[in-house]
């Protein structure tokens, strides 16, 4: 079992990762939360069906579980309220621990429950998807609003992240594709070496196994860890982690949450950001070569037809990076050189018009 440390202004905590390490979870809990009074596992139907029994076997007999429906729809006020009610009814106190056992949806909702229950109790992230290598680290937790994704949330760092890679074995190719998009994003905003290694190592998702998978996750987490260490609450460079997300989130919201995976939407958003970059900055990135690799991996790089360009722009203006109705986008001059830039609405509408014909 390997580990690395996440350091932020408010907390330092470990990330553990390896294959078939679930039996070590109880010792991690003892190390990071030695005075736990009770444990509540929050998971979803699909994850709990496959892995719930194995997880609960490693926890005290009195540990509780709350099972959410699978999918982005679980990140709602209704489910947030229901979990809070369950915790109150079962007597959880300030020494209780929440375990977020699932992908990014479960991690976001469970983390927000932990951040707000009795003004904040500890939680541990136990990710079960590749996508969650991004969302499980850094302390951003939230639920969705119909007018925007992750609009109601908090910064609440976990006590630890426990990443058993073997839990990813039941993922569908669609889920692998969604998660790998965030690995690609980390490489693009940070390192030519990392990006070139990904391109040469992963030509199909069959390649994403064993040491290649562990190295991808490790490098992705290292990128995020370095950025979060310097900007915990997104007042500066942490915004670079949102490369591809301005349009990506708008597409998710406009299509309806769950109609396209987060990672697939982010890939479209990254390609669009490169097109914006051609217009506004002297980008040297080989976009067509990038798209060719993405297509081999099964990604689409064009905006889904039928979406309304004005609605997309309205949702982009509601993005958390926007200021005074002005759209701010993360662009790349070249790999490892991101910048946050105000983009004129007319420029965005023009490019959307070319795509949505």
Order of H and E elements: EEHEHEHEHEHEEEHHHHHHHEEH
Count of DSSP strands? 11
Question: Alpha-carbon distance between the termini?
Answer: 51 Å
Strand content: 15-25%
Q: Total number of helical segments?
A: 13
CATH class of the largest domain: Mainly Alpha
Given the C-alpha coordinates, what overall shape results? globular
At CATH's second level, what is the architecture of the largest domain? Up-down Bundle
> Order of strands across the widest beta sheet?
1-2-9-6-5-3-4
Low-confidence stretches: none
Into how many domains do the coordinates divide? 2
Radius of gyration, in Å, reads 20 Å
Q: Whole-number average pLDDT? A: 93
How is the main sheet built? 7 strands, mixed
GO biological process, one term: aromatic amino acid family biosynthetic process
Domain 3-dehydroquinate synthase N-terminal: 66-177
Keywords: Amino-acid biosynthesis, Aromatic amino acid biosynthesis, Cobalt, Cytoplasm, Lyase, Metal-binding, NAD, Nucleotide-binding, Zinc
Function: Catalyzes the conversion of 3-deoxy-D-arabino-heptulosonate 7-phosphate (DAHP) to dehydroquinate (DHQ).
Write up what this structure looks like.
- The protein has 357 residues and is an alpha/beta fold.
- It folds into 2 domains: 2-170, Rossmann fold (3-Layer(aba) Sandwich); 173-355, Dehydroquinate synthase-like, alpha domain, CATH 1.20.1090.10.
- The protein is built from 13 helices and 11 strands.
- It has helices at 25-32, 45-57, 77-89, 104-116, 132-135, 173-190, 192-201, 210-230, 245-255, 262-280, 287-296, 309-317, 345-355; strands at residues 2-7, 12-18, 39-44, 64-68, 97-102, 123-127, 140-145, 148-155, 160-164, 327-332, 338-343.
- The protein has a 7-stranded mixed beta sheet with strand order 1-2-9-6-5-3-4, sandwiched between helices. A two-stranded antiparallel sheet has the order 7-8.
- The termini are far apart.
- InterPro entries: Dehydroquinate_synthase (IPR050071), DHQ_synth_AroB (IPR016037), DHQ_synth_fam (IPR030963), DHQS/DOIS_N (IPR030960), DHQS_C (IPR056179).
